[in-house]
Amino acid sequence: MITGKPEHLKTFDYIGLYRYFLTFCTHERRRLFENADAVLSARTQIERAALEQRFALIAYCFMPDHVHLLIEGQAEDSDGRCFIARAKQYSGFHHRARFGERLWQRYGFERTLRDDEATVSVARYIFENPLKAGLVERIADYPFLGSNAYTIDQILEAVQLPDDWRRRSG
Fold first, then answer.
1. Among 11-15, 66-70, 89-93, 104-108, which is the least confidently predicted range?
2. Domain interval for residue 135
3. What separation, in Å, do the N-terminal and C-terminal C-alpha atoms of the chain show?
4. 8 assigned to some structural domain
5. CB 146 within 8 A of CB 131
6. Is residue 3, in this structure, part of any structural domain at all?
7. 3-state DSSP helix/strand/coil % of the chain, to nearest 5
8. Residue 2 predicted with pLDDT over 90
9. β-strands 145-146, 19-25: how paired?
C-alpha cells in the first residue's frame, strides 16, 4: 500500500463525534507486527493517544506490515488530526527506543465515515483482513485484533461474522 502524500480534507476540521478508518503502514513495509512485543508496544501507545483525545478504538487489527484502526470520537472536542499525529508519534518513539528502528511510513490512509453502515462495513473489513491474508482460518485465532469498546463476540455479531467463519477459496 503506497499512500503517496495524502492530505487532510481542507474544509473539514476533524473535531467532534466523528468516526475514522485509518491505516498506518510500517516503514518500508517491514513485517514488524509479527512480534507480539512490537504489537503490544504500538497498541499501548495508540490507546494512550485515544484516551488523551477521547476516541474509542472500535476495531483494530495489526497485520504484519500495517495496522487498521476504526476510531470514534467520544466528545465534542475529540480531535482526529491530533489523534493521528500522537498515535504515530508515541508509538514510533517507543518502538525506536525499544527496538532501535523506525516504525511508520510518513503518511497513512484516512477515511471519515458518514453512517453506521459504513462503520459496520469497515469493521468487517478490518476483522476479515487476517483471513484474507491466509494468516488464520478463524478470526478468533488471530492474536492482534480487537476493540477497546466491544468484545470480539459483540463485533463479530455486529458485522454478521460467526466466530468460526472460514476463508473462502477463490
1. 11-15
2. 19-158
3. 22
4. no
5. no
6. no
7. 40, 20, 40
8. no
9. unpaired
Q: Is residue 14 situated within a structural domain?
A: no
CA neighbours closer than 13 Å in the CB half-sphere of residue 69? 29
Q: What whole-number distance in Å separates Cα of residue 29 and Cα of residue 139?
A: 23
Question: What is the length of the chain?
Answer: 170
Percent of the chain with pLDDT over 70: 86
Per the structure, the count of domains in the chain is 1
Residue 147 lies in a domain: yes
Q: DSSP assignment of 62-118, as one string?
A: EETTEEEEEEEE-STT-BHHHHHHHHHHHHHHHHHHHHSS--B-S--EEEEE-SHHH
pLDDT per position as a tens digit, 30-85: 999 999 999 999 999 999 999 999 999 999 999 999 999 999 999 999 999 999 99
CA gap 129, 160 in Å, rounded: 15
Task: Identify any residues that bridge with 26 across adjacent strands, giving them in sequence order.
Answer: 104
Give the domain CATH number at 110.
3.30.70.1290
Pairwise CA distance, residues 123 & 69, whole Å: 9
**pLDDT value of residue 156:** 78
Contact 40, 34 (CB under 8 A): no
